[in-house]
Amino acid sequence: MLLLALDTSTRQASVALCDEERLYGEYTWQVGNNHSVELLERISRLLAECGVTLSALDGLAVAIGPGSFNGVRVAVAAAKTLAFALRKPLVGISTLEISAAQFPHWPGPVCSLLEAGRGELYAACYQFSAQRDIASLFNGRPGQIGNYQTLAPQELVHYCQQEISPIFASSGQSGAIAYLFCGEISESSRQALTQHLGASAVFAPALLSARNASLLTYLARQRFAENLLADPLSLEPLYVRRPSITTSARKQPLLGSKTSQTDSQNDQHSTEREEGALRH
Question: I want to staple 91 with a disulfide (CB 3.0 to 4.6 A). Which of 12, 20, 49, 220 is the partner?
Answer without folding.
Answer: 220
